[in-house]
Amino acid sequence: MAIARRAAAPVIHSERALTSTATVPAGRPPWESEGFDAARRLVAARRQASTHPLQLVRALARANDVVAASRYVRGLPLVAIAPSDTTNGRWLASRVDGRVGAGLARAALLLDGTVEGYLAGRRKQALRTNLRRARNEGFTAHVACESERARLEAQRAADGRAPMLVREQQDLLLLADGDGVWRGYCLVTRDGELAYLERFVRRNDKAAYVLGRNVLQVALVEHLLSSGVRLLLTGSALTVRTGTTYFQYLAGYDIVNVRVRRRVGADAPVQGAFHGFDRRGTERS
Question: Given a cut of 50, is residue 16 above it in pLDDT?
């Protein structure tokens, strides 16, 4: 599902609405945009500013990069969410609204319909091909049971790492090869129609994971659809590795700006909701 770039007040409710207007052709790979590359360079320089301050100075001195990055980010579609006033909702809101610029250029996947619908279209051709290959080689993915969750947490504790599974409706999906060996996992926190992908990582064999992750991605989509999730958000598209950017594009993720409509107490939704805003910030329910 391709999310169009924002031009004149698109309202975001469905794939049709998302692709109705664009400042950049819908579904265009982000790496084909000079603005995307410029934004990545600026963000990288900012992240290294504490140890290499001159890199940030030099980056900001490249006027063409600054202008291109600004235009690119401002031209992204704007999606609006209303997290619930619950532990999960507040946590999710903090991911995309906890600091200045946190909601900009986020990778997002709009979910609507069925898994078959998700896999349809020219853009998903590579995903479909790799999915068949991975399944033929015996890769499977499933939602972890309590004993599997406990096993993973025990392994983390043995390595001196903090607990990972700390919230309700925090789902762990495991990827296994044909011999039943774990090759990767993903972790997602749900809040009604909203979800946030916290981790999507490999274990051990990189080559096995690169193929198997297609099975894990589709299993994640199937699980979220069955749970009533309409929008999956994850981290900044400007800070991930090039290989991750490529995979996210093939898997249907697009880059958006996120606006959080905070409501508390009696006005807060019981569950997180996915809304659309026009360019002026007018809510459309």
Answer: no
